[in-house]
Design brief:
By secondary structure, the protein is an alpha/beta fold. Helices cover 39% and strands 16% of the residues. A hairpin with a 5-residue loop joins strand 17 and strand 18.
Length: 509
Amino acid sequence: MVVLTTAEMRLVDKQARVDLGIPSLVLMENAGVAVVSYMQQEFGDLSGKQIVIFAGSGNNGGDGLVVARHLLNKQAKVKVFIYGQSDKLSADCAHNVLIFEKLHGNVEFISSQSSGKLRISLSLADIVVDAILGTGAKGALRGGLADVVGLINKYTIPIVAIDIPTGVDATSGAVGNGAVKATHTIALGFLKTGLVLYPGCECCGKVSVVDIGIPHSLTDQIKCQMTTPQIAEFLPKRPAWGHKGTFGHCLVIAGSREMAGAAYLTSCGALRSGAGMVTLAVPESIVGFYPPSEIMIKGMPETAQGRFGPDSWDALRKLFAGKDTVVIGPGLGRDEHITNLVKQVLTTWKGPLLLDADGLNSLSEQIDMLTTISPIIRRKWVFTPHPGEMGRLMQLEVPRINQQRIDTTQRAQQKFGVNILLKGAPTIIVGDGQTYINTTGNSGMGTAGMGDVLSGIIGGLLCQGMDSLMATVAGVYYHGKAGDEFFIGRGGRGLIASDLLQVLPELLK
């Protein structure tokens, strides 16, 4: 499912109207009909229901007036309040106000004296429809609109927002000095990025997309989409004659005495996602920490602190032979020896690679080193930073990254020439000109080790021969879906990273 920014939606709308000749009033009519149909599906018979519609002076308000007219046909009791001046309505909005008034519809323009009527209408309402500001609005609510929005939010009744809740930026999801807290948001034509980014998405409630007659072919050039179950089509096939060598050998370089668990979780993630074999290279003093298992563990020379040391490289590079993928970073720790080791791996290994955690922190101290590596090789690589690690890589503050998650990830991908996975809610993946916003996962996954399992899952898919971008997208999707399986069945509190390993094989059939 494609996701559009405000600018992209504006262009698509213009192409539909100007290039194809679809009248804007037709699109508005289709939008209103679709919204009323949705309301019937959600709320049942609308006859006799008290429905209050808040409309603006632009085309979003026009959509609301079309909704009001069709609700009259459903024998609903409709009251329309318009925020704006009667002489400043858009042409299409004014057209639909006139039609509604000819049908003796109840319309009132909000003024400083309207507070009492608004309160009475809201106290009697069964449903509220928000059609004040559309996707073109940005920034803080101006004038008395913040007061109107605050009043709407005081009542515990269903609120249906048309296209986007008033006060939410349709591109960034930013919320200024307030926003309508909808229980349902009906996106017209296509999903908007602001509906899936925080904090805006918290104001949207249940989000649904309705067709309003804009040809989907107009979005063929849009490069941002949501992850869907169809990602299963990209999973590598498992031939009946396959054996452990068929499904790849993943080398995991991870762990330290203080963070030994990260290495184990990563290795298990690779096996559970289908890797044929996993070799785990760890500092030699922690080899005995791990139970006997399918993981082949190799101890490496270490420092007194139990980390990879200056003598680790000679032993480590001998493990490259016969490996299909390298995962490096989880639990390594941070010191000059780790920094040097990461540089040696990155400048030597030529195949698919995933860099995570302390591997990324080490890279941030020598970022110019990437320019010495062929772009062809870097296109096989995956970087998986959380916002703090992204901040070190891009020299940005974390709040700014979280406010511009898509833009930041896209710029990082262009700068480094690798596939970038920005962890968090929602997770963003960018590679080869494509952007994906993940749809799975939950707050129960906010616990230690989740990123290590994710690194292992992606590494396991890479060593089975998946394209680097699609392995990343699939890894993120199924990692989140595994978390959702536990969240739905048992609740999110108490979910731990190793729980995911139990359900991954069932999901990755």
